[in-house]
User: Which sequence fits this backbone?
């Protein structure tokens, strides 16, 4: 639990304040659940079309959330671990190249993040987000490869901030714009140079709110979901079919089916595609003299998840599934720059090409949501 404790110690204080702000502001927009009860939209605006108590009173504004989605998350702490898995490597730092293999005995990840609504109006919502992530590896036989020795017990960090704008246009139309900057790599505070580690991403989605139970949209994302920086189309699809079943999707990155057991218990099942991109300074130079590598990872997770209320504003989530690793390769700086479009062509030389075995994984999560007493006050106890 040392990794998890490090994250909590660094970010708990500022993000606790963020959690309280989220609870106060998001509470102003909650509505009475349906029967059987399910949660209202995640942090809807006061004029959202999902607010049934406003129908016929004044102008309503559309947002992408729908009835049945879980409560808003203000502060999230997450710890994830994988079982052992094999890694085979082709190391092309010399002629001819060499091969190596071993078992990864530890691949653990943790993060803590929070969201602060800095502007919350019916026609405009602006949210500031911050996050700190950390990942670590250990190998059964690190001496088998210079790459394993360089990655052994190295703290791969991500510090990020983002600004998201949700803009309801009218009763039907809405759009989302988001920009995010992250510092990804093995840096320390004394040697951090922002241009070397900065990764930028963003998205824009335009959508339609057809009913309180159905919203969809189309747009594009620029990011590292597929390992390298790529521009690709996305489709948002949020729909609640009945008081129990629903779908929450941002295709192709994730698709999730939702089952509302009760107001205090939600079940999810589906897949996610995750991409990681780290700049790493090597302890040992490669045979070709390289001392800096860019490691890019793309993985697909098939997952089952449960979220459950512990007490009022405190929830927990548990998740388990199977991780399929699509790629885990290392490039020099020039190789990493090649290619922007996800479906573009072009050869990208790999300095180190790894093949990772699939592995089961499990995670646990704690998060803060709007306290129920605030919901009761703003809805008149309904």
Assistant:
């Amino acid at each position: 639990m040392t990794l998890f404790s490090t994250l909590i110690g660094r970010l708990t204080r500022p993000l606790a304040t963020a959690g309280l702000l989220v609870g106060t502001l998001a509470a102003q927009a909650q509505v009475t659940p349906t029967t059987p009860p399910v949660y209202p939209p995640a942090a809807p605006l006061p004029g959202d079309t999902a607010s049934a108590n406003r129908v016929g009173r004044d102008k309503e504004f559309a947002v992408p959330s729908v009835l049945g989605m879980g409560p808003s998350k203000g502060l999230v702490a997450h710890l994830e671990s994988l079982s052992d898995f094999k890694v085979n490597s082709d190391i092309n730092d010399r002629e001819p190249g060499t091969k190596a293999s071993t078992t990864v005995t530890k691949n653990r990840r943790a993060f803590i993040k929070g969201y602060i609504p800095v502007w919350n109006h019916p026609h405009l919502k602006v949210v500031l987000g911050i996050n700190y992530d950390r990942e670590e590896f250990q190998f059964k036989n690190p001496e088998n490869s210079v790459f394993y020795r360089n990655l052994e017990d190295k703290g791969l960090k991500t510090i990020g901030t983002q600004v998201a704008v949700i803009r309801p246009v009218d009763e039907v139309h809405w759009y989302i714009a988001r920009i995010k900057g992250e510092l990804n790599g093995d840096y320390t505070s004394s040697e951090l140079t922002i241009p070397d580690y900065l990764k930028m991403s963003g998205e824009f989605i335009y959508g339609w709110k057809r009913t309180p139970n159905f919203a969809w949209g189309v747009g594009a994302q620029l990011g590292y979901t597929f390992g390298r920086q790529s521009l690709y189309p996305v489709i948002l699809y949020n729909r609640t079919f009945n008081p129990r079943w629903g779908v929450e999707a941002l295709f192709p990155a994730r698709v999730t089916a939702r089952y509302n057991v009760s107001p205090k218990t939600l079940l999810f099942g589906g897949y996610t595609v995750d991409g990681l991109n780290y700049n790493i300074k090597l302890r040992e130079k490669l045979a070709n003299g390289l001392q800096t590598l860019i490691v890019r990872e793309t993985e697909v997770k098939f997952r089952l998840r449960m979220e459950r209320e512990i007490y009022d504003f405190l929830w927990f989530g548990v998740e388990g599934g199977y991780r399929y690793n699509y790629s885990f390769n290392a490039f020099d700086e020039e190789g990493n720059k090649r290619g922007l479009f996800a479906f573009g062509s072009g050869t990208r030389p790999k300095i180190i090409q790894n093949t990772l075995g699939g592995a089961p994984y499990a995670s646990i999560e704690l998060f803060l949501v709007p306290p129920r007493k605030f919901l009761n006050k703003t809805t008149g106890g309904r």
Remarks:
- The chain has one domain: 2-378.
- The two ends are 42 Å apart (CA to CA).
- The longest helix spans residues 2-27.
- Residues 2-378 form one domain.
